[in-house]
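Subject line: Sequence and fold of a protein, written as structure tokens
Area: Proteins and the way their chains fold up in space.
Start of record: The labelled sequence and token lines come straight after this line.
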Amino acid sequence: MATVTQHLWFEKGMREALATYVDLIPGSRIDWITPIPGDTPSGPAGSVQMAGFQLGDQRYMAIEAGPLDSFNHAFSIIVSCDDQAQIDHLWEKLGEGGAYERCGWLRDRWGLSWQIIARRLGELMMSPDPAAAQRVTQAMLKMDKIDIAGLERAAAG
């Protein structure tokens, strides 16, 4: 069986970013961080760092190797939250120094895109009542941070 691992390229600040992520996402950990011992196109031996880590149940690797391509919306990390307190906490902490966007999206201070959503959002959007699902979708499209009570009100009509 193949192993699938997401990979993130940081220009700088990888250690701080990973420490922040594993502190905020339950069940997360940094497995290892090591310098690349040889010269690379990005710098001399030891100047490039690699890491292996886990966010929740997902495996990642990361590299800090100077500028290449910036993070963009083509890749984001989705965190499905069980309650509003989780959403509020992650929204505040991950967005600090970054940028808040519509529909539960934010960019952290390293430029990585996140979607901080409610598990309940998916349930409400898949309602057997198409009108309720439409109201929930319209309510979500007007939100920056996801508001579970607002979604519930929209579903109820």
